[in-house]
What we know:
The protein is an alpha/beta fold. Helices cover 48% and strands 15% of the residues. The protein is built from 10 helices and 7 strands. A 5-stranded mixed β-sheet has the order 3-2-1-4-5. Strands 6-7 form a two-stranded antiparallel ribbon. The radius of gyration is 29 Å and the shape is elongated.
Amino acid sequence: xxxxxxxxxxxxxxxxxxxxxxxxxxxxxxxxxxxxxxxxxxxxxxxxxxxxxxxxxxxxxxxxxxxxxxxxxxxxxxxxxxxxxxxxxxxxxxxxxxxxxxxxxxxxxxxxxxxxxxxxxxxxxxxxxxxxxxxxxxxxxxxxxxxxxxxxxxxxxxxxxxxxxxxxxxxxxxxxxxxxxxxxxxxxxxxxxxxxxxxxxxxxxxxxxxxxxxxxxxxxxxxxxxxxxxxxxxxxxxxxxxxxxxxxxxxxxxxxxxxxxxxxxxxxxxxxxxxxxxxxx
Length: 281
């Protein structure tokens, strides 16, 4: 195979150690080999960076196994041209496997230009991904708590869902808070709680909340309500951070917002473009 890179390195990454194999020398001759093992602590990875710099390495390849490659990428990305390889695409031939052989195999493939790199977005987009994915998880947890509240209301024979399209809207929240606090809800008080845009009549709503609610129901509702409120606050804070990180991409966001069916509430499906392609955020 024809060599294309004079000085390159292959990294076999594990949780506690990383084995590095450097191949260097003229392209028309058999390369020299240098192999070292480093710790994956920050001190060890900085030592790895210094060692690669000393050997004048230009390109470094590693497999995208788990999350162990990420701290190495974060430290080396400013000093070297990094290649993140799909483990299936660089699988070694069957035989006796060792960490040294795996690192050397990766280095050989990279030296001959036989590895296609996976796309790794820049640091700000990676941060944005973490926030939007965590936001999605929190939204799922909030929905689970809302479903549990629905279940308890049905068990207490409170039929709010029959008269309100969304019991977590303005009117529904006011009524639920009153129920949680054990208040006696009369017609005049109920009329103040219900928003004027609500289609259901006060009589129908009063009949729907006339259930058989016990102390146990109120306790369970309070647990779920407090957790749901905490999740909503966390989601709100996440969205503020997301908006800050989206500042350099306002133009892209506005263009995406112009697509029918896509808006800022669908941020999980936004894609931002940088120099190397589109990035899901």
